[in-house]
Amino acid sequence: MGKLKNTGLIGLGVVAGIAVSLQFSAMAQKSVEPALPLEELRQLADVFGLIKSDYVEPVEDKKLLTEAISGMVASLDPHSAYLDKKAYAELREGSEGKFVGLGIEIGVSDDGYIKIVSPIEDSPAYRAGIKAGDLITRLDGQPVKGVSLEDSVKRMRGEPGTKVTLTIARQDEPQPLSFTITREEIHQKSVKSKMVEPGYAWLRVSQFQEPTVDDLAAQITALYQQDPHIKGMVLDLRNDPGGVLQGAIGVSAAFLPKDAAIVSTNGQVAESKQVFYGSPEYYSFRSEGDALAKLPAAVKNVPLVVLVNTGSASASEIVAGALQDYKRATIIGTQTFGKGSVQTIRQLTADTAVKLTTARYYTPKGRSIQARGIVPDLLVDETAEGDGLNSLRMREADLQKHLSNDRDKESAKAAPVNDEMEEQLRIMALEKNSKPLEFGSKDDFQLLQALNHLKGLPVKLAKAEPVVVQADVKKDSKK
C-alpha cells in the first residue's frame, strides 16, 4: 500500500536526517564466541563459487562479499545497515553538524523547482546573495525540475574549493539570475529560535547533532536576553528525525530538574543496559564545561509546549517522552513515528562500519515507544482542515521487519485497510491541494494552537483519535 515518506520545508538540503539514536562505540567482542554454523558457511562458500564460475559475466570478489555483508545486516531490521565509505562519511558529517556544500536549507516548490528556505548565515550561498524564497531552476546548466531532492542535494555537495553554478528565479526579477558559488565546509546550526509574539518564544530543533546542546543553550540565552519575562515557550520537534543520543539527553535536561533520569536502554550486551541522566557526563561531547550551566533559571519552570508529528522520531521521541512523563510540558500535535531503538556504530575499517540495532529505549516511566510512538496530550492536526499529508506518512509500524514493542501489553486495533487505488487517488488529491508547511510561520496552525494553550485559550483539537498499531498486528489483515 502506498504511503508517503516525510516531506516538507525542513532543511533537507543541508544534511540528510538521521532517524536513529546513535551511539558510537568500538566495543571489543565478547570473550566467548559461539560456535560457528559450519554447514551454513559451507553453503555460503558454495554459492560464492557458483556465482564466480557460472554467472553470465564476471563479478568482483569484493562486490560479492560486500553485498553479502550488507544483506546480512539489512535483514535484521529497518535501521541496521552496512556503511560503505560514502555512507559512513555522510553519517559522520550529519552527526557532527558539518558538511561540504553551499549552505542552504531547501525544499520543493509547488511547481517542482528547488525552493530556498533559508541560506545559512555566513555560508558561501549567503555571501553570494542567495535569498529565502529564491527558486533554483538549474544546477550547472542542467534542469532540476523532475529531479529528486536527494539527487539535487548530491549535485550541490562536493569537494571543498570546487564550484557549482545555480540558475535562480527570483520574484520581481524579470530575468533568471546566475550565481557561481565555491563549496566550503558548512557548520550547520540544528537549533533556531525567535519570539513569535511578545512574551512567547519558539525554539526549533531540526535534528540532534553533536553541537545541538551548545546551540540550544545559546538560543535560549538569546531569547531571555530579548525578553527576561518569557510567559511561555514552544519546543518544536516536528519532522525532527532524531540523531545522537547525547543531544536528546541535553535538550531534555535543559528543562528538567538537575540529574533527572531521561531515558533507559536495554539490549543483549552489558553496555546497552543503562540509565541516562540529565548531567553533563551524559550529554557533553567535550570534557570542559557544561553548556547548560549558565542557562537562565526561569527555563526550568517556564510553561512549555512540545510540538510533534509523524516525522518526529527516535531522539525526538526521547525528549517528548521524558517531558511528558515528568509532566513538564504539554505535548501537542499528532502521534509520533514510533522508533524506540538505539543504533550503535561499530567501525570495521578506517572507512567502513556497521550501524547495528543494539537496544530498545524506554521513557523515565518505563514506556517503550517502539512501533507505537508518543501520543500527544492534545491531538491537533497539521491544518484547520485536517492532518493532510502528515496522516499518510510512514510510521515505524509500517516498516518491514520492525522490532516489536516488548512492553506493550495493551490491546491494539489495526489501522483500517483501504483499497490501494483508492488510497493512491487520495494521496494525489492531497498533494495537488497541499502546500509545504513552513514551521514557525504565521500560517503554522499547530504553532498557533500551542500558543493558545499557553495563553489559556481554546485549542482546536483533531477530530479523529490516533490509530495505535501494535507491533505484531499485520497491516494487511482485515477485521
Structural write-up:
The chain is of the alpha/beta class and 479 residues long. It folds into 2 domains: 98-187, Pdz3 Domain (Roll); 191-407 and 416-455, 2-enoyl-CoA Hydratase, Chain A, domain 1. 25% of the residues lie in helices and 22% in strands. The chain contains 11 helices and 21 strands. Strand 17, helix 9 and strand 18 form a beta-alpha-beta unit. It is globular, with a radius of gyration of 23 Å. The relative contact order is 0.14. Mean pLDDT is 83; it is low at 1-21, 26-32, 410-432 and 469-479.
The count of helical stretches stands at: 11
> From the structure provided, what is the oligomeric state, counting identical versus distinct chains?
single chain
Helix content: 25-40%
Question: Roughly what is the average pLDDT, rounded to an integer?
Answer: 83
Low-confidence sequence ranges: 1-21, 26-32, 410-432, 469-479
EC number: 3.4.21.102
Protein name: Carboxyl-terminal processing protease
GO cellular component, one term: outer membrane-bounded periplasmic space
Domain PDZ: 88-157
Primary descriptors:
alpha/beta, 21 strands, 2-enoyl-CoA Hydratase, Chain A, domain 1, 6-stranded antiparallel beta sheet, single chain, 2 domains, disordered C terminus, Pdz3 Domain, 479 residues, disordered N terminus, globular, 7-stranded mixed beta sheet, 25% helix
Task: Characterize this entry briefly.
The chain is built from eleven helices and 21 strands. By secondary structure, the protein is an alpha/beta fold.
